[in-house]
Amino acid sequence: MASFTRRPASPRRRLRTPLTVAGALVVLSVTLAGCGSTHAASVGGARESTGASGTTQARPGRPAPDGAEPAAPVVPARLPGVGPETLAGIPGNARQVVLVTGRGKDSPVSRVVLYRRTGAGWERGATWPAHNALKGWTDDHHAGDLRSPIGVFTLTDAGGLRPDPGTKLPYDRSVGFTIAGTGFEGESLAGSFDYVVAINYNHEPGTSPLDWTRPLGAGKGGGIWLHVDHGGPTHGCVSLAQEHLKELMRTLDPARHPVIVMGDAKSLAR
Fold it and tell me: L,D-TPase catalytic domain spans which residues (predicted)?
């Protein structure tokens, strides 16, 4: 499990860069409102380049003299890559941020980084590869557009087909999270909804991810979740490897008012 405990920086240590992931389109043949649409389309694979992620490596320096205190890690006062417009959308009481940065406006490949707000600023946690919607991102999401909505959304409710992995969020275990079928690359969709966290885009906070209430109307889509990655793009959700999603679910704490900040890098920098 990822920890937000601050560790002294090692002069010889390098920051990890995100893993490469293969993108592929999937078909969500399911009777519930996960990832927006249940229609199919086809696309070739996409691969993320660590060079496009914008990450940098720490430079090695001289070892600290014996008995000397290592320098404290630098905690940014602002979320890296997040501009003033996006930052203004983060509630003042939010102490946990799941930052999802897409590789491009039309890319299904993204990266997830956990941040915790401290008195000094935003402390970085785990970093994981992820998928978003097939056609990338949009500021004006509609049902079936195959794009993930850009914005800042609260995270209040979780659920899944399997037992609660230990999250502090309210958890709805239900057979309604069953999914079958395969994606266009032939990958199985089984297990994609074993664990999910509702992203409160057009979702009523305080209800199960399966709840069909659409405050913005049905045409604006819904059923946008964090769910288990099946190896390809989604219809609108953000997907993570199962072990990473379970770690995230155990980390999210309602007392810290967690939010997800999601979009392509250019849009988030506004």
Answer: 148-262
Cα–Cα distance for residue pair 251/99, rounded to 1 Å: 14
Q: What letter does residue 193 receive in the DSSP assignment?
A: T
**Cα 30–chain centre separation:** 22
Task: Give the predicted TM-score (pTM) of the model.
Answer: 0.75
Provide, rounded to the nearest whole percent, the portion of the chain with pLDDT above 90. 67
Dist CA 112 CA 134 (whole Å): 17
Query: Would you kindly state where each structural domain of the chain is located, as residue ranges?
Result: 34-49+63-268
Residue 233 three-state SS = coil
237 included as an active-site residue = yes
Question: Cα–chain-centroid distance for residue 40?
Answer: 23
Which of 131, 227, 235, 244 is an active site residue?
A: 227
Could you please report the per-residue DSSP string of 130-155?
Answer: EE-BTT-EESS--TTS--EEPEEEE-
Evaluate if residue 35 carries a pLDDT over 90: no
Please check the confidence at residue 22 and state whether its pLDDT lies above 60.
Answer: no
Classify strands 96-102 and 259-264 as parallel, antiparallel or unpaired: parallel
> What is d(CA 187, CA 179) in angstroms, rounded to the nearest whole number?
13
Residue pair 240/128 in contact by the 8 Å Cβ criterion: yes
- Is 35 designated active site? no
Q: How far apart are CA 238 and CA 204, in angstroms?
A: 19
